[in-house]
Amino acid sequence: MEYKAMSNNEKLSILVNSCDKYKDVWDLLFESFRINWSSCPYKIYINTETENYTYKDMPIKVIHTAGKLGLKRNWGGRLKKALKNIDTPYVLNYLDDFVLSEPIQNEEILEKIIDFMDENPEVAVVYLGSFPKWCFIIEEADNLKGFGIMPQCAAYKLSTFPAIWRRNALYRVTKDFETPWQWEMIGSYRASINYYGKFYACFENPDAEEMISKYFKFPWGGALWRGKWNPEALELAKEYGVNIDTTNRGIFEDKSEFLESSTHNVTIIDKLAHKWLLFRELIL
After folding, report:
1. Which residue in 138, 148, 213, 252 could disulfide with 225, CB within 3.0 to 4.6 Å?
2. Quick one: which of 103, 194, 94, 205 has its CA closest to 146?
3. Is 226 domain-assigned?
4. What is the number of structural domains in the chain?
5. Which InterPro entries has this protein been placed in (predicted)?
């Protein structure tokens, strides 16, 4: 098989997608890695425009992805440039505000996923989290308990949730002009009418929930809500000994407003889901 001579540690890199204006989040993110995943054996890259960065003794490599002469480049174009600068066949695609809130206790699942993708070269991605039931054909993956294949036509087939991607598949499914929102929405449509490989994620079942809850666990909603600090993330920062200056971003105090907005978004997603299911029946 391709890359079989390499060890699994050499096959996967972690790519943290960020930007210069989010540099105030990085210390908290990487301290959470240092505390909760000190045994991490994988290369860590951070994708940002122009800022340089180091954190304690962590082997973080910065990939500068601004356009020529420092001109602005969209999120999709920067992601593709970052992927060109990574030499591993797989990447753990990761956003900068997914701050680890608990120690990782199930690191071997990554080894199993890498082996699974080695043995099944048609697999494009394995998402490390449960998706709603309407995303799935109920077909469990062979040799990867708790994971199943997503249908060819599915809403949110592309998601910014942490996932192990085949690097060349992630590159092919991404367009230069896209924002993260466009990538999830337009990209999901694109991935439904074009074949980029098989997409896998967790089923909503106890085995998968237990497996993933022992892996990546974050404050609810991420460290930032609408660009402001999530109070739960600030509590973690105190626990981790990371000083956070809240004067620039402020703190999102009204959680009820955020929950109300999230409920509204879920309703929209549910409506989109039904449209996707209808669309799938029409074209497949």
Report:
1. 252
2. 205
3. yes
4. 1
5. Nucleotide-diphossugar_trans
